[in-house]
Amino acid sequence: MNTRIFGLSVSALVALAVALAAGWFLLGALGAGTVAVLVLALYYAIPAASFNFLFGSLGVFSLAQAVFVAVGAYTDVYLYNVYGVSPWLSLLIAPVFAGIIALPIALASVRAGTGAVLTALITLIISEAIPPILIAIKPLGGAIGLYVKTKANPSFWDMQFGSGVSFARMFLVLNVLIIVFMMWWNRSRFGFFVRAIRDSPDASAAVGIPTARMRILTFVIAAALAAPAGVVFAQYSLETTADLFLGGTALFEVIVIALVGGAARAWGSVVGAVVIVYVANAMSNAANGAPGIGPLTFAAVFVVIAVAMPRGLSGTWALLADRRRRAAGGTLASPPAPAAEPEARPVDDHAHRATEHDVASG
Amino acid sequence: MYLEQLLLVGVLGGAVLSLVGVGFTLVIGVGKVANFAHGAFVAVGMYLGYWIGHTLGLNPYVLFVPALLVFTLIGWGIAELFEWRGRKVGAIGELLVGLALLLLINGLLSVGFGPNPVTLSNVEMGSVSVAGTRIPGSEIYAAVFTLVVGAGIYVFLRGSRWGRALRAVAENPQSAALYGVRVPIAQRVAVTGSIALAGIAGLVISPFSVLTPDVGTNFLITAFAVIVIGGVGNTVGAVFAGLLIGVVDSLAIGYLSTVWTTLGPLLIILAFLLIRPVPVEI
């Protein structure tokens, strides 16, 4: 039987630790070109995980997650340039800022209604509104953005590394931390609350779940998860501009990666990111770096996913795993796969609910 | 004088936004599909006009009727796609398809026409002078087109049996079905009509617009603003909302700094959403 620590299965934790260690050493052995691709993939995986966290647990389709990455990046570069605050410290400060900024956005989307489409449109408007605001704020460098002040002999605390390997490793660690957090969340009381809210807002309010508060809390946590990615990415690219994070393609790439990965498993976003960034890079290389090929590949892969597997790679995996387990005569041990749509859930919904209930009370 | 010019430009620009918004309000109200690619079809129409004018050297309006037919066919295909995904996966499936189409169209336009903004400069359609402003003929045609189409849609929705069926579906699909309205057909008609309208609107405004591959996203946001201000499924409200946005936009460009011209409309939408939330679950 699966032993658990704080609700986390030990075998999953061991698998994660092995993956982390393998990734850590593998990154050291790869060529610079591959590392650059992986840095990008592992960076995108974080806002994508933040999106999947919201979408998977609460069913909120937020296009604003890139905003919180930008908040992280601007926080880091501004604090470092003006006050000399170490980026390592910014890793802790940025989530707080992102959470504060997420609060009114969460309020607006909760107030406007619960429909996924409406939330998607509102958050799209917010992400389109942020760049002009950022550009209008003079200390943040306007349209040019901010450049990290580089040092000739940077110390460890300046987080300026010559090679991409260190950044890739940092992104890897951040990803693993987020996966662990999401695994814990799914098994915790909060996880059950938000899934109940997603499946039936009225019923969960009736049994005493503070629905509005849980919605806002989840939104704020998702924002805090996305912010550290901005800090590290700003240090990696040594600059931060509104376009870098919120430009037409950058904004949607996060969503595409998240949906390709799927929200059914915590690792979905990492796998989705590595697959899609690798494919887009390969296609771009095949076209001799012709402009627009990368985004077009993203779009093409997304079309395939949207039509063929709307729950993403990890959603399909979860579906197959459950089918296999049922064929073997076992019970559904995995946490209920967040279905894309409550009405479209499998028929054996009662089995899911029963498991949830047992774990919640036990 | 300056104010009058700004108002005139605003009304002309707003007329087109109304048209895009009328389509969007139909697709959400009747089709119950939030087609994220709605604005992208405007972009397709614009680039089609650019291609006709720039590559073929023709007046884009010459190919108005064939383009309308093509957009209607494409629209029907997309409507089937939405219907299929909606049946299989629900509203999220439709959302994904819309988003995927938006990105695909943005990507294709960017690869096909380059990422930089382009304008169609070699099409001359004369001009008229109103209130001291020289207004290009194409803008007059666009405004007349909007007026005719807007009035046509109004008469269709109010006067015809089909229009009544569409309004019934917008009001309450279940009851409409009980009364014998073929709801799936009505929804397909709404989606098809909105896409055809969006594409043709794009073709009509192509001679006097700046074209960028991701212009579709901007039109999506404007269309959303139109339904937020005008009400879901309310075509008359959509027309007024479009005009309002056009005028506000034009005044903002005339009197305020550039920050406000991009930010202003977005803030208006957010304010409207907070004061008067959208009544329908979408």
In a nutshell, what does this entry contain?
The complex is a heterodimer of chains A (362) and B (282). Chain A has helices at 10-29, 32-58, 65-83, 87-112, 116-136, 164-187, 189-199, 201-206, 211-237, 242-246, 248-261, 268-286, 293-308, 312-327, 349-361, and strands spanning 4-5, 8-9, 146-147, 239-240.
> Distance between the terminal alpha carbons of chain B, to the nearest Å?
43 Å
How large is the radius of gyration of chain B? Answer: 18 Å
Structural class of chain A: mainly alpha
Indicate the low-confidence ranges of chain B by residue numbers. none
Q: What is the tally of beta strands of chain B? A: 2
C-alpha geometry of chain A? globular
Q: Uncertain spans of chain A, ≥5 residues at pLDDT below 50?
A: 337-362
Strand content range of chain B: under 5%
Q: Which sequence of SSEs, written as H and E, runs from N to C of chain A?
A: EEHHHHHEHHHHEHHHHHH
Greatest interface by residues involved: A-B, 48 and 45 residues
Q: Based on CA inertia axes, which overall geometry of chain B fits?
A: globular
Please indicate the percent range of residues of chain A in DSSP E strands (runs of 2 or more).
Answer: under 5%
CATH topology descriptor of chain B = ABC transporter involved in vitamin B12 uptake, BtuC
* End-to-end CA span of chain A: 16 Å
| Annotation field: number of helices of chain A | 15
Strand order of the largest sheet of chain A: 1-2
Strand order of the largest sheet of chain B: 1-2
* Pattern of helices and strands of chain B: HHHHEEHHHHHHH
The whole-number mean of residue pLDDT values of chain B reads 84
The number of helical runs of chain B is: 11
